[in-house]
Write a structure and sequence with these properties.
Elements: H1 4-21, H2 25-32, E1 41-49, E2 55-60, H3 65-68, E3 74-82, E4 91-101, E5 112-121, E6 126-135, E7 140-149, E8 156-166, E9 169-178
Antiparallel strand pairs: 1-3, 1-9, 2-3, 3-4, 4-5, 5-6, 6-7, 7-8, 8-9
Bound molecules: 2-acetamido-2-deoxy-beta-D-glucopyranose (3 copies).
Subunit structure: Homodimer.
InterPro entries: Allene_oxi_cyc_Dirigent, Dirigent
GO biological process, one term: phenylpropanoid biosynthetic process
């Protein structure tokens, strides 16, 4: 049963809705609810400058290098996401997360767990993406396990390709496919 307070709230919400519907519809929807992403593909570039504070290999120390090599070592990162390969091209957001070494055998038997999220805003689509998977030297494919805003409920995968390897700069292209 609705009490009086609840009825007043409903009435108020209705009045607000009526008033707002008199305004331009796009003006109302733009800020509050980003447009749902409808495409099946998306790509962008991530910018790594190893001199910047946006990467830390001291995030987690190996547990015991004598006994278990690099097991437990963690790297934390926060990288810019850009529209084009040039670091000066349009800034779309960031990718932030960490990798943790889960193998106690050492290189080349490295099993790096990567967990990250992407903050993305290209002016049309705006939201976050959750990523998870095995980071590898040659081919990294991560699962897109979800998202928010324009990417609410996202499912798919992301392939990482290194396009620039010129220290202190490394640039990676992310190709996303939504299922
Ligand atoms: C994108 O979403 C964020 C978080 O909800 C918000 O702060 C920001 O204003 C949005 N950008 C645009 C252009 O609407
Ligand atoms: C690493 O493990 C070895 C073998 O158990 C042990 O002797 C050594 O003290 C450990 N080192 C550290 C830093 O805990
Ligand atoms: C990331 O973008 C910000 C804002 O444009 C810029 O100040 C910063 O230098 C960029 N960082 C890297 C590592 O490119």
């Amino acid at each position: 049963m609705l009490n009086v307070k609840r009825i007043n709230q409903v009435a108020m919400a209705f009045i607000v809705a009526v008033v707002l519907s008199g305004l331009s519809e796009t003006a109302v929807s733009a800020g509050s609810k980003p447009r749902q992403f409808k495409g099946s593909r998306l790509h962008y570039y991530t910018q790594l400058d190893v001199r910047s504070p946006g990467i830390s290999t001291a995030f987690l120390r190996p547990i015991n290098t004598t006994l278990s090599r690099n097991f437990g070592a963690g790297t934390l990162f926060a990288l810019n996401v850009t529209k084009e390969v040039a670091s000066t091209s349009k800034l779309l957001g960031s990718v932030r997360g960490y990798t943790v070494e889960t193998s106690y055998l050492g290189f080349p038997d490295s099993w790096l767990l990567e967990v990250a999220f992407v903050e993305y805003d290209d002016g049309k689509y705006n939201g976050t993406l959750q990523l998870q998977g095995l980071a590898q030297q040659s081919l990294t494919e991560l699962a897109i396990t979800g998202g928010s805003g324009s990417f609410r409920g996202a499912k798919g995968y992301l392939v990482v390709t290194q396009v620039v390897d010129s220290l202190p700069t490394r640039i990676f292209r992310h190709d996303l496919t939504f299922l």
